[in-house]
Amino acid sequence: MLRLKLISLTCLLLLACSDKPTAVDPPSLTGPVWQLITLANIKGGQTELGDQLYTAEFSAAGAITGRADCNSYFAEYDIPEWGLLQVSQVATTLVYCGEESLLEQYYAALQAAHSFELTPDQLTLHFADRGKLIYLPQETP
Prior knowledge:
alpha+beta, Lipocalin, ten-stranded antiparallel beta sheet, 35% strand
């Protein structure tokens, strides 16, 4: 009986001292407001954003809200499995932002997003033919 207790105690100590990493929650789309820094097109070129502001905030309820140049927008999203993304039709305010606005390109890319990569400090949404939207967490003033 004593031998059984010693074996059990030894096993518990070995498990407690193992180098096996503990499970960590994966980063989440929800939380930060993501600010677009790059809109990369299918040919590998990048579009200059200038002073235009594009943001995306993902809610746990499956909504994306944000700013697209001088407009606000809303869409729904779904993650059928980690790394895959489906975005609904974007609903937006209809303020004219000027000829230089990337508004239409941004909405088209966001709606076409099919997958994502996420680290604590960068979100990349991939859309058709190697295009991507790259975001960083927006700095709070």
